[in-house]
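Consider the tokenized backbone below.
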């Protein structure tokens, strides 16, 4: 079985009400992806934006508002996630 390097993508909903930004880290390995609330380790890419725009983007209903780091990971998300 080929190995898969671990990759992390951070999703950051900015302007999420009175609280601090809402942050999730998605970790991809050879196993199914794991999502945790918060910043867990360094991320190769971050998807920051308003919560409503991120929600639509993560369900492939619109483009990701912004990508920092490796834009190829945002493209991989669009390719591999259901539409």
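A designed sequence for it:
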């Amino acid at each position: 079985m080929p190995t898969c390097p671990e990759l992390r993508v951070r999703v950051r909903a900015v302007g999420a009400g009175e609280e601090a930004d809402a942050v999730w880290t998605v970790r991809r390995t050879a196993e199914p992806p794991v999502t945790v609330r918060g910043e867990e380790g360094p991320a190769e890419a971050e998807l920051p934006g308003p919560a409503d725009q991120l929600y639509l983007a993560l369900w492939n209903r619109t483009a990701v508002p912004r990508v920092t780091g490796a834009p190829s990971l945002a493209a991989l998300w669009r390719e591999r996630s259901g539409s």
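Helices lie at 51-58, 71-80.
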